[in-house]
Specification:
It contains six helices and 14 strands. The protein starts with a strand and ends with a strand. The protein has a single domain, classed as Purple Acid Phosphatase, chain A, domain 2 (4-Layer Sandwich), CATH 3.60.21. The strands form two sheets. Strands 1, 2, 3, 4, 5, 12, 13 and 14 form an eight-stranded mixed sheet that branches. A six-stranded mixed sheet has the order 6-7-8-9-11-10, covered by helices on one side. With 263 residues, the chain is an alpha/beta fold.
């Protein structure tokens, strides 16, 4: 049995500090690999090469991204230099960066392929069909990877659930991100794929999806644009542990969690 940890969207400095504290103090000792979504880690929008190195030093082995992939200035010129970071697989081919990560799991002879797919319902970023692109991804890695870990970065539960059934039996796990609120539907699908609609976020819980409460409320009331800073109170880390059968190459268990961090 192999255990991997996936951490939900890391939001700003509070999220980064919370993740560092969790990985140092609370990580299950038998965890073989840590994967994290870092698309909100730079001030709540995007990623930088400096922050990717900070997260790597904290213990995040692999980093994924979502619809905020290009929010930080010049990141499109940095991403190709980052060996442990992948941009969403179904972005246009002209986009820079790795489409997926092929990684040897430490202290094993097993390899895992990690990829993120963007949903298209209510998403503003241009992307290709995630269902058809997964089929291409599967053909690309099925002969070289023992496990396929897939992240579905999407707005609607229906699109995520449909995608889960589409990859059932081919991906070892498909875990949703983007909405920042953990769902209660973690399960092993009937062909051995671990599924969770949304893993939640790593960041300030006393917030609106990681942002200060008052300006968000005001924006809903009057519709006027205003700055919505990253909040900093009640930091929590949300993620899930996934146990994989190294012989049958299927998932055995998925265990979501949310832990309060005292910084």
């Amino acid at each position: 049995m192999l255990k991997i940890l996936f951490l939900g969207d890391i939001v700003g400095r509070p999220g980064r500090h919370g993740v560092a504290h969790f990985l140092k103090e609370s990580l299950d000792t038998d965890t073989a690999l840590v994967i994290a979504n870092a698309e909100n880690s730079a001030g709540g929008n995007g990623l930088t090469s400096k922050i990717s190195l900070e997260l790597k030093k904290s213990g995040c082995d692999l980093l994924t991204l979502g619809d905020h992939v290009w929010d930080q200035k010049n990141f499109q010129n940095e991403i190709s230099t980052l060996e442990n970071v992948c941009r969403p697989y179904n972005l246009p081919l002209e986009n820079p960066g790795k489409k997926y990560l092929l990684h040897k799991i430490p202290q094993t002879d097993k390899t895992i392929a990690v990829a993120t797919f963007l949903g298209r319902s209510f998403m503003k970023i241009q992307s290709d069909c995630p269902f058809k692109k997964f089929d291409l991804f599967y053909q690309e890695v099925v002969e070289t990877a023992d496990f396929l870990f897939v992240e579905m970065h999407a707005e609607t539960t229906a699109e995520k659930i449909a995608f889960g059934w589409h990859v059932n039996g081919r991906a070892s796990a498909v875990v949703g991100t983007h909405t920042h609120v953990q769902t209660a539907d973690g399960e092993i699908l009937d062909q051995g794929t671990a599924y969770l609609t949304d893993v939640g976020m790593c960041g300030p819980h006393r917030s609106v999806l990681g942002r200060e409460v008052d300006p968000i409320i005001q924006r809903f009331q009057d519709g006027l644009p205003r700055k919505c800073p990253v909040a900093d109170k009640d930091v929590r880390v949300s993620g899930c542990y996934i146990e994989l059968d190294s012989m049958q190459k299927i998932a055995l268990n998925i265990k979501p969690f949310q832990q309060k961090i005292d910084l």
